[in-house]
Amino acid sequence: MAERPAMRRGGRPGRSRTGLAAGMLLMGAAAPAAAQGLFGGDPIPGATTGLSRPLSPFMTPLEPGRSAAPNFWQPDLLPDIAGAPRGAGEPTPPWRFGGSVVGSASYTDNVRNSVTNTESDVFFTLTPRVTATADTASLVGSATYAPRLRYYLNNPNQNGVDQRFAAQGLGTLIQDRLFVEFSAVGDVQSVFGDFAGAQFEPDNQQNQIQTASYRISPYLQHRFGDFAIARLGYAFRQVVQDGNASFAEGETTPFFVSTGFTSNQFYGTLNSGDSFGRLGWTLTASSTDFAGDNVYDGAYNRIYGAQLRYAVTRELAALVDGGWQDLRYNGVNPYEVNDPVWGVGFRYQPDEFSFLTVRYGQFDGQTSWFANGGLDIGVRTRMFVNYSERLSNSGLNTGDALSQLRVDELGNLVNVSTGAPAALAFGSPLQNVQSGIFLQRRAALAFSHTLTRDTFSLGFSWQDSDPVAIAQGTQPFSQTTRSVSLGWNRALEPGMTLVAAGRYGISEPENSGELRNYSLTVGVTRALTERLVASLLYQFTSRETNEFGGTADRNLITFSLSQAF
């Protein structure tokens, strides 16, 4: 995103910068059991016991789903070809190792994406990548390491190495009894916010924030015949956000400072078995304690609850939730919740790949609607919808998403339940990254339509954030953002694809002017051989602000080569 004329940034010498690209790196692990259906069955591990939000929202188990179209929401400007495809019917080996290297050369007429300092430059990137994937009786998962080297001809202060890596998997220590889940993911983003799923938008390195999250969760599991299945577990998580302090124009107190936390969670669940027929139920108890900076210092979240599900028909189930929550975040004005948790709603599941869950109830001390779903509309169109109101921030969002991400068969990082891309399902388009805890109201709606040679995507997002727990030494502000994105892919011929994407967004920070964002991307990819792909990209971005009368325009041209090994 552009360097905001409305903002200024404080320096912090001597800090190294690392980056994680979740959208290209995270490899998912297969779950050992199917998602719980309308008539009982085994739950997905971790489905009702996520790290900081074990019943979030309103104790909603993950639903079965599938990936969206190959280029849903964001055109694939440089396909991942880390491994050659297997032949039809060829079995998956227990261990797979792959690698690739991507090199690119770019020209931009505004290297810092600034209103006033519009300096041009040529820069190069080199990204080697190694990946290991396991599919054995004792381990299912993947790990990837892909550092990205950046070199600018005229701006050496922008040079660096982004340490990008990710891992996710499930280990079986004792068959059908003792398991351990693990995951790691992170991202590098602008403190001023990005478009959802945007690619090839280098920003001033001084504006970037690294968010990294790690999780490990051993648990015991026991089945009581067809009556129920019990799980008792522990989860450790660490989240770190690292970046320069950031200030609103005219302010001496930053809205963002580097922060981090660890959390320790103990949880237990009891899920109904097949013997209950149309009726399903879940009992859950979870206690999470935080340790970290500021609002996380001494914070906790304890939830005790039950969920009832009754299958009215094979497609429609009624949902009732009830329980209690004790929650506290610290800071200048600590936020506490000591209230009942309740919800009523329904789940519509017309087939094994589609579902829609709608609820109304109370969670985190807020009474609101909740909706989440991924539906096939006909045979060519896929829809994703989400609405939620919750207490969170960008760091908590990243950590909460760990147990809900996977990589589909096409290499896309997606929400495990809906198939929506991670940037759309869990991102916060154009929102400033701020310290503290916020009440986040968020809505997203997207469609993907696939024809023989074309794929179209259309997405809308809206988010409103209000601070509820202020970190000591910071001055956060409310913010409302809205955006729309349109994407198009067309197969010109075998091995050659035209891609295009347009985005428009508005950001309205509290006590500041309206910020308008535009982005247009056009590119073409060509497979030179089975393992070598070339890509040529043109991108134009513009950011306007009514209050300060400034416009940051930028043109970017990038040529890339990707070689798989």
Description of the molecule:
The structure is a single chain. The chain is mainly beta and 565 residues long. It has helices at residues 22-25, 394-401, 422-426; strands spanning 7-9, 95-108, 121-135, 139-145, 148-152, 160-162, 165-174, 178-190, 208-224, 228-242, 246-248, 259-272, 279-292, 300-311, 316-329, 335-351, 354-363, 366-377, 381-392, 405-407, 413-415, 437-450, 454-469, 479-493, 496-509, 515-527, 532-545, 550-564. The strands form three sheets. The protein has a 22-stranded antiparallel beta barrel. The protein has a two-stranded antiparallel ribbon with strand order 1-11. A two-stranded antiparallel sheet has the order 20-21. A hairpin with a 3-residue loop joins strand 9 (208-224) and strand 10 (228-242). It starts with 6 loop residues before the first strand and ends with a strand. Residues 1-62 and 66-88 have low confidence and may be disordered.
Short overview:
The chain is mainly beta and 565 residues long. Helices cover 3% and strands 56% of the residues.
The biggest beta sheet reads: 22 strands, antiparallel, barrel
Low-pLDDT runs of 5+ residues are 1-62, 66-88
Instruction: Give the amount of beta strand, in percent.
Output: over 45%
How widely separated are the two ends?
34 Å
What structural class do helix, strand and pairing data support? mainly beta
Strand element count: 28
Radius of gyration over alpha carbons?
23 Å
Please count the helical segments: 3
The residue-averaged pLDDT reads 77
**Spatial shape:** globular
| Helical residues, percent | under 10%
